[in-house]
Amino acid sequence: MMACMRSDSDRRLREVWARLALVTDPELDEPVTELGFVDKVEVDEAEAVHVHFRLPTYWCAANFAFLMVDDIRKAASVARATRVHVRLDDHMHGEVINQGLAAGADFKATFGEAEGQDLEALRLVFRKKAFASRQHKLIELLLDLGLDDERLAAMTTSELTGMTDLALPFRHARSRYLKLRPIIGGGAPNAFVTESGLPVTAAHFAAHRSRLRSTDLNLASNGALCRGLLAARYDEDDSLDRDHLGQPTLHHFVRRAACQAAPR
């Protein structure tokens, strides 16, 4: 009997982790699990789910923190869970956010009208950046397949969806991009559009790709910065300090700078 209960609890725990892997940092467009933001997940004997969440610094913006904690709470609400409790640890607004979410309050109710934050508008801003980043990754893979700017500018969403016999990295990049395409791209038939949903002509496609690249690099750099700060803050894994050639990464320099700046 006890073995069956443990097995059921383990299964539910794996399910929670799988769902949390679908939650992304809205500013970085990376899963919170891969960023190391989810510190601990537990399922107790009463079938309640407990998630401990943390961020790279004590002062990370309250609106971003609230968005992620709320998304985590929704994702962790698995079948037969009697309760879901998400706790933001080691944050200047942690207790306020924890109490607000426990009471079922939204951001304005939690922090007051003085904050003046429209979180859905903010979420859309970062979805557009994620859209650009994902589009850049997908376009680079298509260029590697031999497609040129003229072909990409003319490609329709149906054509992109219908491409078969392609490697897993392409299928993964396409899947992630197409999740945002209906939200950002509107009703245009073109596979690749601007963040405003406008088609891009072949003559302007190279400039379009350059803008996408800048956004993608910005997100990647911020992601490395956050990983480095988190690792330095909690004195954790330094395996990302070197790349596959053994050269120092941005993660290495962030950890080093943070450690040097820390009070002794």
From TrEMBL:
Highest taxon above the source species: Bacteria
Pfam families per the UniProt record, alphabetical: FeS_assembly_P
Domain MIP18 family-like: 15-77
Protein name: Metal-sulfur cluster biosynthetic enzyme
Annotated organism of origin: Arboricoccus pini
